[in-house]
Amino acid sequence: MSTQVASSDSSIAANDPPATGAISFQLTATNASSVPGSVYFNVFPPALKNLPANAQVITALVSPATTNTSPPVNLTWNGGADALSMLALAAGADPAPAAKTPVALGDNVAVAWANGTFTITPSPGGPEGVLTVTFAPGIPVGGSVGLVVGPAPILVPIPVSLSPLTLEPDLSPAVTVMFGTAFQLPAPAISDESQAQTVTFKTDATSTSPTATAAITVGLDNQIVETG
């Protein structure tokens, strides 16, 4: 699927303050493309701010299968500073069923391994705006920790030295969307996806139960266009 992705038209400027608190995000996605058969929308959170791209694996929330005759699909998740959680994985483990522990910015997060299971214990008192992750001796080599930011976890390898990690999430009201083959870990041998499109959400900051919404459509030209 060779496409050029349309520019996003959003009412939220890039320098607007990031989301705070827990916010319900709702993305409405319409498949009106020329691609036959089942196709998926993959929704990725923003990358961690303080780590290079090759030091993190950004996973996706995957929509149900759609066809170009399907009604729009709605994808929902909680985002913002009050919706963060962490997980820990052994080498090759699937992040989807992993237990997730709520965490908060400024937490010190202790990760340990006992009886074949990871434990995650957060406590306040760390530097503001980040999570500081420490590792107990005995953690198996090749594992990773994941920080759930918005729609999906971001995985970071556990250092072989078990030295601490600092994780700084980007809580901007935006995601990256790709259209095509469903996201998988590990990546399939053959996949076909559109170019990545940034989708920025509109929020009502005055609401007591804030909701962020956005809508996208993939037209006959297979371009992702933000429509609302």
Explain how this protein is built:
The chain is mostly beta strands and about 230 residues long. It has one domain (about 25-225). It is about 0% helix and about 40% strand. It has no helices and 18 strands. It has strands spanning about 25-30, 40-45, 55-60, 60, 75-80, 85-90, 100, 110-115, 115-125, 130-135, 145-150, 150-155, 165, 175-180, 195-200, 200-205, 210-220, 225. Strands 1, 5, 16, 17 and 18 form a five-stranded mixed beta sheet that branches. A five-stranded antiparallel beta sheet has the order 3-12-11-6-7, with no helix packed on it. A hairpin with a 2-residue loop joins β11 (about 145-150) and β12. It is globular, with a radius of gyration of 18 Å. Residues about 1-20 have low confidence and may be disordered.
Tally of individual domains:
1
Query: What is the total tally of β strands?
Result: 18
- Between the first and last Cα atoms, what is the distance in angstroms? 24 Å
Beta-strand percent range? 35-45%
N-to-C series of helices and strands: EEEEEEEEEEEEEEEEEE
Note the main sheet: 5 strands, mixed
Mean pLDDT: 89
Q: What is the alpha-carbon Rg in Å?
A: 18 Å
Counting helices, strands and paired strands, the structural category is: mainly beta
Proportion of helical residues:
under 10%
- What is the 3D shape? globular
Task: Write a compact overview of the structure shown.
The chain is an all-beta fold and 228 residues long. It has strands spanning 23-31, 40-44, 57-58, 61-62, 73-79, 85-89, 101-102, 108-114, 117-123, 131-135, 144-149, 152-157, 165-167, 174-180, 197-200, 202-203, 211-218, 224-226. It contains no helices and 18 strands.
